[in-house]
Amino acid sequence: MKIGILTSGGDCQGLNAAIRGVSKTLFHELGSDVTIYGIRDGYRGLIEGDYHVMSPKDFSDILTLGGTILGTSRQPFKEMQKTDDNAPSRLDKMLKTVHDAGFDCLVILGGNGTHKTANLLAEHGVNVVTLPKTIDNDLWGTEMTFGFQSAIEIASTVIDSIHSTAFSHSRVFIVEIMGHKAGWLTLYAGIASGADIIVIPEIPYSAKAIAKAIEKREKSGKRFSIIAVAEGAISQEEAKLSKKEFKAAREKMPYPSISYRIADELKALTGQEIRVTIPGHFQRGGPPCPADRLLTTRFGVAAAELIRNKKYGYMVALQNDKIVPVPLAEVAGKLKTVPPDGEVVHAARALGLSMGDDEG
Ligand code: F6P
């Protein structure tokens, strides 16, 4: 059996642990009946036919290694079927590579965009098994993606550390957390590290409501406030705009990111000095936490077993603490966002945290 493996899109912790989980299981169960090919830099390697045979020792000592030994790249889904003057599209080139290499199956590790392309390949007859990775946790069909728990640890550590300096200076701090258009990472890290106000895209914010929450804390004798803001946060006014209007408004926004705009709005409303901290890609780096090592290993073993049973066209997913296969067609193109009325948001509000809106 010839298996091609690739990692695509933004990296995250646990990619190598997942690669190891799939490969070790395949070698253990199929022995010399399997050859594993590493495809370099995600779909770029598949488009350009850039792959190499890997041996069992390539998968040793990588459980705790950050990043991806295969490399990765972003290859937008919308570009995959474009052609100029009847030249082969990227999809055509990928199909050719699969054919020329004789891959019996592709193992694809990725997030939302990656899954759209994985589904496209499956629709064109390629045998595909995928694993859900992203610190954003926004993939449909799985309760958790790998990378998410490691990123929570890093984002929480940042907010933990901000507490002492915020206390010393009696300051308001904004910590901007990654997550693209979803608020999972901000919500979970915010609660885990005792942020006072949490602003996520799924609950559009009102600057006045945030200012009110800060003032309420001051009146109750609190020296500082920490606001965890998702990079994808939007205001209540912006939530009323069409997609096109929103895009145009954001293009004109004179700030490097949403946190700086919120800081300015809060400065005007409260008269306070506001500091902004952005951990950025730090949240995606370094070794996976033990919980992610376990999750990736479980995902990897399940993916290998799908391959052994020739059950293709699935993503391995976590549901009710079990690893289950979910059809790729059900996953592709669907975003999993935070339910604003869900249990975790309820827990935050019940604790007295502000979600930056007008409730509470
Ligand atoms: O999808 C993971 C993620 O880290 C998002 O949280 C973030 O918006 C984006 O990738 C950053 O992308 P890039 O690495 O291309 O700057």
Structure, explained:
The protein is of the alpha/beta class and 360 residues long. It is built from 13 helices and eleven strands. Strands 3-2-1-4-5-10-11 form a seven-stranded mixed beta sheet, with helices on both faces. The chain has a four-stranded parallel beta sheet with strand order 7-8-6-9, with helices on both faces. Helix 1 packs parallel to helix 11, helix 5 crosses helix 6 and helix 7 packs across helix 10. The protein starts with a strand and ends in a 10-residue tail after the last helix. The structure holds 6-O-phosphono-beta-D-fructofuranose. The site of 6-O-phosphono-beta-D-fructofuranose has 11 residues, from loops.
